[in-house]
Design a protein that fits this description.
Blueprint: E1 28-32, H1 37-42, E2 47-54, E3 57-64, E4 67-73, H2 78-93, E5 94-95, E6 100-101, E7 109-118, E8 128-136, H3 150-163, E9 173-176, H4 179-186, E10 195-201, H5 222-227, E11 230-231, E12 234-240, H6 243-253, E13 256-266, E14 271-272, H7 276-293
Parallel strand pairs: 1-4, 1-7, 7-13, 8-10, 10-12
Antiparallel strand pairs: 2-3, 3-4, 5-6, 7-12, 8-9, 8-13, 11-12, 13-14
The structure holds 1-O-phosphono-alpha-D-ribofuranose and uracil (URA).
Uracil binds near residues 209 and 264.
Length: about 290
């Protein structure tokens, strides 16, 4: 039995932060950071059957043709992904009345449609990048007992050595995307974008992404350290603030996750998108076309 202090339900019997009940979500879920992006996605639905909103978590569930899907905003950061993933998982894998784990596991498909900063000169502003891995510069997954694959351990060792962080206070981690979803969306006939690579997830937008406006930085070389990393065919293409936790918690809880981002700030070129809303709309349309054709 899971105590009421450990999994909090509200007066509707809904999980507390998301304010959602099990029947109010689909098993395919799009996560976006910005609550304002939720109606931009659900505008493509034929019918919206559920609309809920609590704090930064806005949810619309509906259908396109005979396929049901949910779009939910996470707000910013891996700490919010901790809430979103644990509460979505509880909706399908916990009997909320009995407060017990269900005997059969249900696996969700989660797609993040986000924005990001680009780190490579050959990946242009407004391009879509699919995350092969999340490189966690945050510390969320250090609170969980996730087993890392040999490839993930090799890659993170190579990155730490490249950055010269063997004795630094930062302890990055790295988690791969769901291999089937990654393959499906990076190869024909459903290829979403030619650009894919490691996505660094940062615990902030300014200092943790190497932006110096006024506060002095402890890691002024961060952008160069990330963009110059090469290991076998891997490189770091972009950074944002959620993917590492989505991939880590997704795998730990048995859900299949893929993170897709539009480059709005090109850090290699020092430019910002001239029409980021149009580029985001293009990502949503393109993703839905690919998803519906699968
Ligand atoms: C920062 O501006 C936010 O934008 C990116 C980052 O990951 C962070 O959440 O994603 P979203 O556009 O999905 O919010
Ligand atoms: N989101 C981020 O986290 N960083 C950027 O540079 C742009 C969007």
């Amino acid at each position: 039995m899971i105590a009421s202090s450990e999994l909090i339900l509200n007066e509707r019997g809904a999980v507390y932060h998301l304010d959602l009940r099990p029947e109010e979500i689909a098993h395919t879920i799009i996560t976006v950071g910005d609550p304002g992006r939720v109606p931009v996605v659900s505008r493509h639905f034929d019918r919206i059957e559920v609309q809920r909103s609590h704090r930064e978590f806005v949810t619309h569930t509906g259908t396109i043709g005979n396929r049901r899907l949910t779009v939910i905003s996470s707000g910013i950061g891996t700490d919010n992904i901790d809430i979103v993933l644990n509460e979505l998982d509880a909706l399908v894998n916990i009997d909320l009345q009995q407060r017990t784990r269900k005997p059969d596991h249900t696996s969700l498909q989660l797609f993040r449609l986000g924005t990001c900063g680009g780190l490579q000169a050959d990946v242009p502003t407004d391009a879509l990048v699919i995350s092969t891995h999340g490189l966690g510069l945050d510390n969320l997954m250090h609170y969980y007992a996730l087993a890392y694959s040999d490839e993930e351990q090799e890659l993170i060792r190579a990155f730490i050595s490249h950055a010269g962080w063997d004795h630094a206070p930062l302890k990055p981690y790295l988690v791969a995307a769901d291999p089937d979803l990654l393959k499906s969306f990076t190869s024909e006939p459903h290829q979403l974008s030619p650009y894919h690579g490691i996505t660094a997830s940062c615990p902030g937008f300014y200092g943790p992404q190497g932006r110096q406006v006024r506060a002095p930085l402890a890691y002024p070389q961060l952008v160069d350290q990330l963009s110059s990393f090469r290991f076998q065919h891997h490189r770091i293409t972009n950074f944002e603030m959620e993917t590492s936790a989505l991939y880590g918690l997704g795998r730990l809880l048995g859900h299949r996750c893929l993170s897709i981002s539009t480059i709005v700030a090109n850090r290699a070129a020092g430019t910002f998108s001239s029409d980021s809303q149009k580029a985001i709309e293009r990502m949503i349309t393109r993703f839905l076309e690919c998803w519906l054709s699968r």
